[in-house]
Amino acid sequence: MCFSSHDSRNRPTGKLSIVLLLAFSCFLGFQFYILSNQHRLDQSSSHTDVTSHILFDEDGSNGSTGTYDELNAAVAKTRKVIEADDTRREQRRNKENGSNENDAGDDDDDNTETDNDNDNETNLEEAVRLQAEEKAKVAAEAAKAAAVEGETTSTQKNDKLNIVFLYGDDWRFDSLGAVNPIVHTPNLDKLASQGMLFSQNAVTTSICWISRGCFATGQHYAKHKQLAVGGLVPWYNYWNETVFGKLKDNGYKLGMVGKWHSAKYPDNSFDYARGYFGFHIQPGTGKHITDMNEDHALEFLKQSQTKHVEKPFALFVNFFAPHHHDGQKEQYFPSNETKSLYQDVVIPFAPTATQESWEKMPPFFSDGNDGRIRWRLRFDTKEKAQRMMKNYYRLISGVDKTVGKIIEDLEKRNLTDNTLIVFTTDNGYYHAEHGLADKFYAHQESIRVPLIIKDPRMNKALIGTRNDDFTLSIDLAPTILKAAGLDVPNRMQGVDMSPLYTAIDKPTWRNQFYYEYPGIPGNNGHLPVQAIVRKDYKYMYWPKKNFEELYNIPTDRYEQYDLARNFTFKSKLEEMRNAFKVEQASAQ
Fold first, then answer.
1. 256: closest CA among 313, 343, 318, 167?
2. 230 band by pLDDT with thresholds 50, 70 and 90
3. pLDDT tens figures, 192-217
4. Residue 85 lies in a domain
5. DSSP-derived 3-state class of residue 552
6. 213 vs 206, 222, 226, 473, CA distance in Å?
7. Is residue 53 part of a domain?
8. Do 15 and 2 form a contact (C-beta atoms < 8 A)?
9. Residues of the domain holding 265
10. What is the pTM of this model?
11. Which of 1, 204, 460, 463 would you call most buried, defined as having the most Cβ atoms within 10 angstroms of its Cβ?
12. d(CA 534, CA 319)
């Protein structure tokens, strides 16, 4: 190696010291190398299942590149050393504890454990109380900031804005032309240029019916507790305190079009309701479901301006697209109008769309996992992956076309100066990242979703800008209710977002949030997971497996390098674990 023959012969003790010193220095250097290169990812790995490995940044530029096969091997080797060292330390501690035990000591230990449990419970309760106070303070400061508004675009001073809520399905944050130039969404891009795009928006649970419950109630799943897709819906018991009930009780004409995905809502909840989902092409008529959404949305707008012109209205357009058609081999069926799009494009995929990334998933992930099963349906060959993604994007472009028609109708009726327009979606979506498809889990691809708001109260200086605060699905209902001039029920855990775009001075806002996925009862292919998310770190906890993960987001945006068992990050893991417990308790 780097030692001379003279040193080898005459200084055996010195050689050993130097070797140990260099080995320790190399280890520290390697730790730094890992941290500084976690974001460097290969774009030409021979093991990749798809043709390209690019995930677009929010400005549309390509992600960082570099080789990572050797890095992965080195990381795996280092982890084995670290885990073996941790195991030895744990065994030594257990042995030392065992040698000091006696009957009296056991009694003392039992008492100490009880005292510690009580102290921990008290500390958690105090932390939750302080957290609630902090959230209330943030909401109050945001409301105070909103009271000092900048110059707006509105020419009307009606306290009750009309509401148009456009709700996509299984559509993640970078499936917009404003973020990813491959995707053809000119109408949504225009809406973003006339309003505000929220680049860090996220859902608090990533599965259709639970996420929709979070929107309606302004609550985390832990609070509204709608677990079954077709059974009991607990939040129906306080329907009058949901976004729908509050609007209807306060004089709004309500329209609901498209996907509901829960048990039948209470009678007379909507003035106009056309509910359907689960297909792309309607059997018998051959009509595309997005075209049906368009027809019914326009019909509602026509009626609202003829029969009930004196009433403000709220229209909820719940698109089924681009959700896949379950049970169909091809999964995605676009309309004839969008089939010509993307023909000459090669769809890029992220660096984690590989077999290696799948094998890095926690050890309890198996081929029977529902996300893996759906991956095989869509992404297990290059040709299939390209076909699926092109049809998926064609469905998105079809929704964009309908969004354009709805906004055009609002303009013709001179309603845009008095209408809040919101576009968002219910879940993110894996595009083969981590060897998965669909949603469910706590990775960025699954939890981050688009949000565009165009509000006539918007500060002119902020029109066409992007906001990078953590906004959540539970914030949507409070935001809509405040736009309607209504108080937000105490049950709601979300916060009105309008101060982020109406105030002159940016208000104080949350710097972390709680995510949860409870799984599906009786389905072992779905694994419950919970998380706390910050801009710098994300902590995941798999409750049925008592397994933790920790990721540094700025250096590892693809979430490939779990730091939970790296002793360098022991204090950060403890910090995130404690913060997670507080957020988890606050969400209930």
1. 318
2. confident
3. 999 999 999 999 999 999 999 999 99
4. no
5. strand
6. 11, 11, 7, 10
7. no
8. no
9. 157-509
10. 0.79
11. 204
12. 30
